[in-house]
Design the sequence.
């Protein structure tokens, strides 16, 4: 598909401009629009997007307050006392199947002394099919117009058809990547699957679950409320985890951006790498210190009661030991002889009769008391001996832990000295304010990242409990519903829709992953074909959240430190991949593609675009300063057309 003509009337400074992009058989499908700054190059791009999408997608802030209608037309109309004027853009494209499609948008304005009021905005589209009898059909409703635009130049991939130079340079910034993810979801229709899933979930929550909540059974109603609250708590936790992940990615991007600034200076790279290594080692040592201190606290806690009793136990044990060694502890006696005398009134030793046994009974009582005391004291001494053994074990464990902590603290202090020396070296580089600022900001983003990681970890630790609670409440609700025949159908619907939601989510994930893998491979294939540096990069990765990573031959992520030219080539490679994957193999229109490219790489970029023009239409706008001798020589008269814009009395003309 290619643009044949663009006709613009009364659109800003483009009073009456017609651009033709005819392809010569012996030339590439490569076209140039040449103009000085302010003549209207970017407004040609705005005129195209206004015609197709009713939006000026590349409007600068300095123009936003101005009327889209040409100033001269407004002034002349006011000189006549006011009236009506029209603005129009007509774009004719040639499709691959031979159809010629003409998109037209006309806006009508009422002009008076104080205002310019838009009265109408009417689109229309005509299609000439060389095969059909009569060959032509015209659509005049907005719905028909938008459907035709979607068929040939869909809004979802507009950012991969119509570029300004700044877009290429900023293609991989976080804001752009978020738009890319949305665009890819739209292109693959994965977004429709997600919308259906969300609609079903909303239906279950708001309609079907509401029926359960309004049931007359109070127990059922309360359980329905608990299940709904459990589900909401689970959803909120998942949303927070996703948001923390997004913030972590933002921090990573900002850290990588600061790294690219720092690493621009070769003499700092080695120091910066050493600083990173020291930082990682400090973190590891600090973690080890914390671990050992925790073990020490656990050890003290384990021996806490014994340590508290130690003074009293020690005093008692020393007393028992002293009494035992001096023979002061009561001896133990065999009481069986006295027991026989009391029982038989006869001495088993001499055989004499014992008439009065009171003194025997008193002796028996005294012996019992002495034996009991002796037994208690003896058992106490035996029981206290292991206590002292445990105390000795405690001392050994604590001494080992203290020694380990002392060694780690010493190592930590040594590393801190090196870290401070390196950080000071990097901060104190003469006349490198940008580097110092980048280092400080990088540290701030690292701290922010750590904070988000901690928050995400806390929510992740809660996620399992929230999920189990939701399943438990849901199971209780289902059991209560089973007891109510009138609600069984409602419950069946809920279960059916939940299964549909689960299947749709799986389909969405599968579509997104397959598309991402395909685009990842095709982007890197294109990049390798177009890039002039061979074997420098070994892999291109697209993460689940569409964060892009370019890996060099040493395994480093280097996208942030790539040159503007390399980033532009990667953006073009991704654009070609997205057009191919979406089955909308469209043209490329790029406004000032060399704005951020240095002279050394301009030749390379032009070579790449000329190569692309072998297979698809490429339209470029240049300022006169960009279109220098290097660019002319590189193009080597391979373009099919040059439209030269000039401005006379504020009106843009085409030469």
Sequence:
């Amino acid at each position: 598909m290619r643009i044949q003509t663009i006709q613009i009337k009364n659109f800003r400074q483009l009073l009456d401009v017609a651009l033709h992009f005819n392809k010569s058989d012996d030339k590439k499908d490569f076209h140039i629009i040449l103009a000085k700054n302010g003549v209207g190059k970017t407004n040609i791009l705005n005129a195209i997007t206004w015609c197709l999408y009713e939006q000026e997608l590349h409007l600068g802030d300095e123009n936003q307050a101005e009327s889209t209608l040409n100033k001269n037309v407004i002034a002349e109309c006011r000189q006549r006392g006011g009236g009506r004027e029209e603005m129009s853009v007509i774009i004719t494209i040639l499709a691959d199947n031979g159809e010629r499609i003409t998109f037209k948008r006309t806006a009508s304005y009422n002009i008076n002394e104080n205002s310019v009021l838009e009265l109408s905005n009417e689109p229309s589209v005509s299609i000439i099919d060389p095969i059909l009898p009569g060959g032509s059909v015209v659509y005049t409703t907005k719905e028909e117009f938008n459907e035709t635009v979607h068929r040939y130049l869909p809004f979802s991939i507009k950012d991969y058809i119509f570029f300004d130079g700044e877009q290429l340079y900023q293609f991989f910034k976080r804001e752009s990547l978020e738009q890319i993810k949305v665009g890819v979801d739209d292109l693959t229709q994965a977004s429709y699957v997600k919308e259906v899933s969300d609609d079903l979930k909303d239906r279950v929550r708001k309609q079907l679950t509401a029926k359960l909540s309004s049931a007359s059974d109070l127990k059922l109603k309360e359980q329905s409320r608990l299940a709904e609250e459990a589900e909401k708590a689970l959803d909120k936790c998942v949303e927070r985890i996703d948001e923390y992940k997004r913030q972590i990615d933002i921090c990573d991007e900002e850290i990588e951006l600061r790294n690219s600034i720092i690493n621009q200076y070769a003499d700092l790279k080695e120091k910066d790498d050493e600083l990173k290594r020291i930082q990682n080692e400090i973190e590891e040592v600090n973690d080890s210190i914390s671990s050992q201190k925790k073990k020490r606290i656990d050890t003290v806690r384990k021996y806490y009661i014994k340590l508290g009793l130690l003074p009293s136990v020690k005093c008692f044990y020393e007393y028992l030991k002293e009494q035992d060694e001096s023979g002061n502890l009561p001896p133990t006696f065999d009481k069986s002889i006295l027991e026989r005398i009391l029982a038989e009134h006869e001495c088993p030793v001499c055989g004499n009769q014992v008439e009065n046994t009171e003194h025997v009974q008193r002796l028996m009582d005294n012996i019992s008391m002495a034996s009991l005391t002796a037994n208690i004291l003896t058992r106490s001494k035996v029981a206290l001996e292991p206590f002292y053994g445990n105390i000795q074990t405690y001392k050994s464990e604590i001494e080992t832990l203290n020694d380990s902590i002392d060694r780690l603290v010493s190592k930590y202090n040594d590393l801190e000295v090196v870290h401070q020396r390196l950080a000071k070296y990097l901060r104190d580089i003469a006349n490198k304010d940008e580097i110092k600022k980048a280092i400080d900001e990088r540290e701030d983003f690292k701290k922010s990242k750590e904070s988000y990681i901690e928050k995400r970890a806390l929510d992740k630790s809660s996620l399992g409990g929230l999920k189990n609670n939701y399943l438990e409440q849901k199971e209780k609700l289902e059991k209560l519903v089973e007891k109510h025949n009138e609600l069984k159908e409602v419950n069946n619907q809920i279960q059916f829709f939940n299964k549909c939601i689960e299947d749709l989510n799986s389909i969405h994930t599968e579509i997104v992953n397959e598309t991402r893998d395909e685009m990842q491979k095709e982007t890197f294939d294109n990049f390798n074909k177009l890039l002039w540096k061979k074997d420098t990069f070994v892999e291109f990765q697209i993460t689940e959240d569409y964060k892009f990573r370019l890996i060099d031959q040493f395994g480093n992520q280097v996208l942030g430190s790539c040159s503007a030219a390399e980033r532009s080539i990667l953006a073009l490679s991704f654009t070609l991949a997205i057009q191919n994957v979406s089955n909308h193999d469209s043209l490329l229109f790029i406004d000032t593609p060399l704005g951020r490219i240095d002279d050394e790489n301009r030749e390379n970029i032009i070579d790449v675009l000329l190569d692309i023009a072998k297979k698809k239409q490429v339209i470029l706008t240049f300022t006169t300063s960009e279109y220098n001798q290097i660019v002319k020589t590189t193009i080597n008269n391979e373009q099919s057309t040059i439209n030269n814009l000039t401005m006379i009395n504020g009106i843009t003309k085409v030469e």
Notes: Residues 161 and 588 are 5 Å apart (CA to CA). The chain has a mean pLDDT of 81. Residues 294-425 form one domain.
